[in-house]
Amino acid sequence: LVLSETARAKAWLLEGRPLVAELPWSLGRNLDLIVQGGIAICEKIEAMGGEVLRARPRVGKLDQFALLARTWWRWLGGSQPHFANSAMSSGHAPTTVTAAMSEVLR
Fold it and tell me: With a threshold of 0.85, does the pTM exceed it?
């Protein structure tokens, strides 16, 4: 159950991630970091085999630094990140979750 819910949460994070590029710089940068952190936690849970009751999944200091560095690297110079494999950049219609999130952010 934990692994299936983790996979579902990770899929939603990845699906909504292209919206980051649609936001103003300051908000998008922060949301990008939140999304990356959520994905990192999902990957930690997957690596633990879903055994979250035995040990708490943690994003360590080195992981945190890597997340921050990637976020700042993507947003340096005021350019927003490009998500080559995303529905928004490929010209396809957004999925229902993406469309719903887009409506909320308008």
Answer: no
Residues 18, 86 contacting (CB under 8 angstroms)? yes
Q: Are 6 and 38 in contact (CB under 8 A)?
A: no
Per-residue pLDDT band for 69 (boundaries 50, 70, 90) equals confident
b/e sequence 82-103, b meaning 16+ C-beta within 10 Å: ebeebebeeeeebeeebeebee
List CB contacts of 13: < 8 A, sequence separation 6 or more.
35, 38, 39, 42
- Residues 97 and 15 sit within 8 Å (Cβ to Cβ): yes
Helical segments of the chain, H only: 2-16, 25-47, 61-75, 87-90, 96-105
| Three-class SS state of 99 | helix
